[in-house]
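Quality-control log, excerpt.
Job 1 of 2 completed; input and output follow.
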Amino acid sequence: MNRGLRTAIVLAVALVAALGASFVAFMAMQRLSAQSSTPDTVPVVVAVRDVPMGTLLTTDHVKVMPWPTNSQVQGALGRVEDALDRGTILGLAVNEPVTEAKLAAKGIGSGLSPTITPGMRAISIKVNEVVGVAGFVVPGSRVDVLVTIETPGATTRSSMTRVVVSNVQVLTAGTRIDQDKAQAEGKPIAASVVTLLVLPEDAERIALAQVEGQVTLTLRNPTDTAPTPTPGARLASLLGTQTDNAPSAPTAPAPRVRPRRLVAPPPAAPPAPKAYTVETIRGAKRTEEIVK
C-alpha cells in the first residue's frame, strides 16, 4: 500500500471518529437541555369538567394530572381518594385544581348546607323576572334587598320603598335543573326562588319584609362593597306633592305665661268684742241692755 492511500485511510477514520464524537456530544447536550427545560411536577387532583357548587364528588368528576412545582396551588389535593364523597362549597371549572378550601368536610354530605359559612344563614325569597333582574341574579352575584310597604299608622295611603339589607351574596337561583340548563345554553336563569346568604338579624328583616310588603332585588357590581345608606322613597315625594327634605309647617308659638307673684294674704279681722247684758230695775220696771 502506497503512502498516499495510507494517509487517506487515516484521515477518513479520523473524520468518522470526529463525526461520531460530535454526534454523541450533541445528543448529550440535547438530553441535558430537555431535562433542564422540563420542570419538576407533582400529582394534583383537578376537575374533569365544570362542577357546580353543592356537588358530591365521585370518580367521574375528578382526576390526577402532573402539576409544575414552581406554580403549585396552595391546599391542592394530591390523591383522588382525598376528594371523593365530599361536597363542593364553590363551583369548579374544568382542569381547575381541587383544594381543601373548596370542599366540605367528609361526612357532611353535599347540597346547600355545607356551603353556608358558620354564623350565617340561608334564606329563600320568591322572585319573578322583574324581581330577579331579568334572570341575571345568578349564584355568586351580590344584590341589595328592597321592600315596598304601606306606612303604618297613616290616615291616608302612604307607601315607602327602602333598602332593608345591603350587599348580600346569592347562593342559588332556581333549581339545579334551571341552573344547568341556563349555563349550557348561556342564558340568564329564569328562577322563581333565590336563596341568599345573610346574617341572622338580616334574615329576620327579610322574612318580615316578605310578609308585610313586596320584596325587590337590585344587582350590584361585585367590587362595590359599600353599604347603601338611603333614606328611602315615599309616595308623596314620588308624586311631587311633598319632598322628604321639605321643612315642616311652622307651628304657632305657645302663649307666654307670666309667672305669678306671691302675694301675702290679708291680715285676719280682729275678733268681735264680747257683748255684756246689763239688767236695770227702776221701781217696778225692769229692763235689760246689751253693752259691747
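Job 2 of 2 completed; input and output follow.
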Amino acid sequence: MLSPEQLYALRNLPLAAKQVAEGFLHGQHLSRRRGVGMEFSQYRPYQPGDDLRRLDWRLAARSDRYYIRESEVDTSLTVHLLLDATASMNHRDDNGLSKLDYGRLLLAALAYLAVNQGDAVALTILRPDGLQHLPPRADPRQLTRIFHTLENATATGRFPAAAELAPLTARRQRALTICVSDLYEEDGEIDTLLTRLRTTSGEVLLLHLLARNELDFTYRGAVTFEDLETGRTLQLNADQQRRTWQEHLHGWLREAATQARRHGFEYAQLSTAEPLDRALREFLKRR
C-alpha cells in the first residue's frame, strides 16, 4: 500500500481512494443475512406459514420430509462519515501531511469501499460556520459528491456550537457513524455529539488521528508552540520537556480511549505517518 504522503502527492482524491480501497475489495466479506437470494446457504425444516415456492420438492420426494431452501442475500448499511474540520486539523506532520489531508484520504477510501459494497453513505464536515452535509445515498454518483466535498474542505475555527449540531442528532436513522478527529476540544463537545449520535443512530467508530511528531515529540531545542484554534503560544525547550510531554500525552490518550469505550464507542488511534489500512480493517470488522 502506498504511504499517505505518496497518495496525497497524486493530487487526485478519487484515484487515491481507489488505490487504497481496491486492495481490500479482493476477498471482501459482505455482511449477510439468510433469506430469499441467489446464493444457496442451507436447508431448514418447513414451518407453517413458509412460502411454499421455497420448498425443495425433490428433497421431499426422497426423504418424505419438507425442507425450505435458504439463501444468502447482502445486507445494506448506512454509513455516516464525519470529518472534524476545526483549525487544529491543520497541524502538519514531519512528512508534510496535515491531519486534514490524511482525514480526506481516509474518508474518501472508506466511502469508496462502502459504496462498492452497496451501502448508503452520508458525509458531514464539522465546521464552526455550519455543517456541510450530504444525506445518505447508495448510488455511485454519491462518490463524486463526497470526493468533491472532501477536496474543498478547509479546516478553520473551533468545533461547532450545539445549536449547529442539532440537525445531526435530530435524525433517528440507524447507521454506522465513523468520526475522524484529533479530539482537541474545550469542553467535551465532540464526546457530547458522538454520545447523542450513539443514542439516535447506533454504532459509532471513533478514529482518533494524531501526527507522528506529536506522538514521538520529534522537536529539538527551543520551540514555540501555537494553539491553532485559540492563538495561544507556549515556549519551551523540547529536549528538556520531552519526557513530561509524553507522559501527559499518553495519559490523555488512555483517558480518551477509556472515555470513548465507556460511552459505547469503538475507538482506534491512528497516526498520519501510517498507511490507511488499519482504519479500513476497523470498518470491515463492523461491516
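Post-run check on job 2. The longest strand covers residues 67-74.
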